[in-house]
Write a structure and sequence with these properties.
The protein has 483 residues and is mostly helical. It has one domain. It is built from 16 helices and 3 strands. Strands 1-2-3 form a 3-stranded antiparallel sheet. Helix 8 packs parallel to helix 16 and helix 13 packs antiparallel against helix 16. It is elongated and about 105 Å long. About 1% of the residues have low confidence.
């Protein structure tokens, strides 16, 4: 295979695509869509994060402004945790519109994350928001299809293909050259998005600091470059087997519909059917049922806690809880928090397994569909996937548990051991200066290494499709015919 001829065929594709004025009209329209998606994405990303950070500060100020109070009342007073969006969320919205951003943290109860955009929408959000990632995943393949569907089929129809082959051109040079030309055109459309995102990360990087943001950005862009290589190869392959340009176009549109709409929706439907998720009421009822069996820490006559009291008295060799060297009520609250948190984590882990099984369906289909694979890879490295949402939930609950237990420790240490109950009055309180001792909640991004592990299947799928498409080009070069 002579590279000079490969380059000649690539330049021929470039010339045929860029000569008509319609190409520049399409490119300008695509640029306008890119500008709109970039401006709206950056603006929304910054405003949402500023609002969440502001409310996080307000929640902290409200916590610290509490007067001297009983520690357990402070545990029930609680606070809020706000999820900040990752920097690359302005490029790929992912599941951002469907994931909540705020959770109320209180003792003995793990609340759900609320206030997602989808909960306030009219239902149009299910069609997706116009992001830069969506343009590359859905719109750009269509543009490349309309540019390259006739790159070989048209030559076969008008007889040019026979002339090229009779003059010494090789099928391998033609296929790889036209693929390269189409790939370069795809990069021309991708370039503005890369520049805009890089500029935004440079300007706003300090206020949207994240773990390895540039490494994530590089991974996303490389993924999309491989994706464009796959799309270009498939277009040239289908065109090489098409008897007419019309026939090749219809086949390519069918493939686009299959990969973009049919397979993703089918995978989601099958996952939900085979692994149904419980309702929120059923989930909370199951936890409450087990919690009742374990015992109620607020009920002094509960059998479980009566046994616990007897064992504690025996260990300390006393006969009454008022003789213990610590406040027994605080001890009971601490044990009750352990029990409820353990039960919640158990049921939450079962719920996560259900979601993971559903996602496994989509990830498995991603091996057959590069469009789904690149979508998963883009969301994971952008920090807008489901695992990022779950990580926030876990961080918030870890903070909630630490806060509740810190308040219980204050009760055990500072509340008079002889005061076994009650949270009113000046004799049952601790100083407000203790509220400031506990650090504020800070949402930390998932480490890049964990994101890379999460995206491993999508990366394998993308690389598999790159090798498969290039292999099919080589195989086609040996078997293709001019007629």
């Amino acid at each position: 295979m002579r590279f000079s001829n490969v380059r000649l065929f690539a330049s021929h594709v470039w010339k045929d695509a860029t000569t008509p004025k319609t190409f520049y009209l399409i490119y300008v329209l695509f640029l306008l869509l890119t500008v709109y998606a970039a401006v709206s994405g950056i603006k929304n990303h910054r405003s949402q994060n500023n609002i969440r950070k502001s409310h996080q500060t307000m929640a902290r100020q409200s916590w610290e402004a509490n007067p001297d109070k009983h520690p357990h009342r402070m545990a029930h007073f609680g606070t809020f945790a706000f999820r900040t969006s990752a920097p690359l969320g302005m490029f790929d919205y992912g599941l951002e519109g469907f994931m909540g951003s705020t959770v109320f943290l209180e003792a003995h109860r793990q609340n759900s994350v609320n206030f997602s955009d989808a909960s306030f929408s009219t239902g149009t959000l299910r069609f997706g928001e116009l992001s830069m990632a969506l343009l590359v995943q859905l719109v750009l393949p269509l543009i490349l299809i309309f540019i390259g569907f006739a790159c070989i089929a048209n030559d076969r129809q008008n007889g040019t293909l026979k002339i090229l082959l009779s003059q010494g051109a090789r099928w391998s040079e033609m296929l790889f050259g036209k693929t390269m030309g189409l790939f370069i055109i795809g990069l021309l459309f991708l370039l503005p998005m890369v520049l805009v995102t890089a500029i935004a990360l440079t300007i706003y990087g300090s206020e949207m600091a994240s773990d390895s943001v540039w490494l994530r950005f590089t991974s996303v862009i490389l993924g999309y470059m491989f994706f464009l290589c796959i799309v270009s190869s498939i277009i040239v392959l289908v065109s090489s087997y098409g008897s007419t340009p019309k026939n090749a176009l219809l086949r390519l549109l069918g493939i686009w519909l299959l990969m973009v709409i049919v397979l993703p929706k089918s995978a989601q439907a099958m996952g939900s059917y085979w692994y149904p998720t419980p309702t929120k009421l059923a989930f909370e009822s199951a936890i409450e049922k087990e919690e009742i069996q374990k015992g109620d820490s607020h009920n002094p006559d509960d059998p479980y806690y009566n046994d616990l009291r007897d064992s504690v008295l025996a260990v300390h060799k006393v006969t009454r809880v008022t003789e213990l060297p610590f406040n027994y009520s605080g001890f009971v609250m601490r044990e009750g928090e352990k029990i409820t948190s353990t039960l919640y984590k158990k049921h939450h882990a079962e719920l996560l397994r259900t979601y993971q099984n559903q996602n496994t369906m989509s990830h498995s289909v991603g091996l057959l569909n590069p469009c789904m694979a690149i979508k998963q890879l883009s969301m994971i490295f952008s920090g807008t996937d489901f695992s990022s949402y779950i990580d926030f939930q876990q961080q918030a609950d870890t903070y909630r548990y630490s806060l509740s237990q810190a308040m219980n420790e204050l009760q055990m240490k500072y509340i008079n051991p002889k005061k076994t109950s009650g949270s009113e009055g000046k004799t049952h309180v601790v100083g407000h200066e203790h509220w400031e001792e506990f650090p504020d909640f800070e949402h930390r991004p998932i480490p890049f290494e964990e994101s890379a592990r999460e995206a491993s299947l999508a990366m394998v799928s993308i690389l598999f499709w790159v090798m498969l498409s290039l292999g099919l080009l080589s195989l086609t070069a040996k078997k293709a015919r001019a007629l």
